[in-house]
Amino acid sequence: MRVTVCELSHEEDDFQENWDQLIQHVRSEQSDLVLLPEMPFSPWFAASPAFDPEVWAAAVSAHDQWIDRLSELAPVSVLGSRPVRREDARLNEAFAWEVESGYHPAHHKYYLPDEEGFWEASWYQRGDGSFRPVDVGEATVGFAICTDIWFFHRARAYGQAGAHLLAHPRATLRINLDKWLAAGRAAAVVSGAFCISSNHVCPRHSKPDLGGMGWIVGPDGEVLGLTSREEPFVTREIDLMDAVDAKATYPRYVAD
């Protein structure tokens, strides 16, 4: 399977150019699957501590419009997350989009920060706590939206459920990219799955200064590819059987 990760500007003026470049990349690389950043289709609204219903509604509407445009990436399968309202709850919903089946929800972010630049618990509610993998093409995928990645028992459970991939859409700061990569590598090791991550990037150093660096990490924590300002899209061929085989090796086989 050929998987693509990316870093996309969260500034509207740059996003369309990034999108056009991503379309060209996945076509030239013959990608099978692409992961987008966390809630990529609107400015990062959680930078403000005060919930604004008009801003929330605009973000939901923007994502509705862009979900309809995911077919521009076809036949690639697309993973990501988006703001939604489900009944009376505002949620951050992970999704998978496929050519034949279209959009389907996969997970709701559960672990919500509430601090400078990331007032997420003030903007939306946590999900129901279910972390169930979904099938996307030939791959079984477990979602860990941004902060979800730090709760490694969830990654281990995904591995025990047979996940080949941990999909980690995120919005994280430039100053702590090494810390986040360490989390992605650790999650891959405890799950025995590939960990793929895509991030927002702020080329003009707006606040918060989201720092890019998507990655593809192997089941033993090996870094297979990193995005950068110079290379904002990275594609690698991965063998899903490597994730199957990893489940039988240390530390995955050790009983809880």
Describe, in short, the structure shown.
This protein has 256 residues and is α/β, with parallel strands linked by helices. Helix content is 27%, strand content 28%.
- Say how many strands there are: 12
Structural domain count: 1
Task: Find the CATH superfamily.
Answer: Carbon-nitrogen hydrolase
Count of helices? 6
Characterize the largest beta sheet: strand count, sense, and whether it forms a barrel.
12 strands, mixed
List keywords for this structure.
256 residues, alpha/beta, Nitrilase/N-carbamoyl-D-aminoacid amidohydrolase, 6 helices
Give an account of the 3D structure.
This protein has 256 residues and is α/β, with parallel strands linked by helices. It has a single domain (2-246), classed as Carbon-nitrogen hydrolase (Nitrilase/N-carbamoyl-D-aminoacid amidohydrolase, 4-Layer Sandwich), CATH 3.60.110. It has 6 helices and 12 strands. Strands 1, 2, 3, 4, 5, 6, 7, 8, 9, 10, 11 and 12 form a 12-stranded mixed β-sheet that branches. Helix 4 runs parallel beside helix 5 (177-191). The longest helix has 18 residues, at 12-29. The radius of gyration is 17 Å and the shape is globular. The mean pLDDT is 96.
